[in-house]
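Pipeline run #58 for the internal structure catalog. This entry was flagged by the ingest filter as a single-chain record with no existing model, so it goes straight to prediction. Upstream metadata was stripped on purpose; only the residue string is passed forward. Reviewer on rotation: M.T. Logging verbosity set to normal.
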Amino acid sequence: MSKAFTKESDSADSEVEDADALPAHAKNYVTPAGLAALQAEFRKLLYEERPKVVEIVSWAAGNGDRSENGDYIYGKKRLREIDHRVRYLAKRIESAEMVDPERQKNRDQVFFGATIEYARKDTQQTVTIVGIDEADLASGKISFLSPVARALMKAHVGDVIEFRTPSGSDTIEVLSIEYRTRT
């Protein structure tokens, strides 16, 4: 089919959804704080931002010629973005499996939700293993599907773990494991 007969947003939407998709075998694990953040963003977009944008688009549409109406064009684009994000969040919230790190019984081993301090090449780092949607390296939160998190899974304090990185083999030593609620 010719590109002339497809909507510009169709290909972009499917690329974004593919990029954010979980691997077929993976569940959508999320911490309580992560689920609350997803739900808060969903509510804000659906009940606050979207009605404001709809109001602006309605006002702009009433001004006549829509082809050169910046408020109308931008508003429609923003509505598509909001609707796409709302659909994405709805799917993520629906498929979420909440795991509370404070309820972890086996606290001497690394599992989802653990906060781990480890040594790697003469540096120490502290990370918390969280869901895909909550991962934020700047805050020390890594996805449970990341190479470091996968290598750390089921490790104990004192374990030295070797794992593969794009630049070759690397080792890390687990210094401490904690289970706490982290926002």
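catalog note: The longest strand covers residues 168-179.
catalog note: The mean pLDDT is 86.
status: ready for reviewer M.T.
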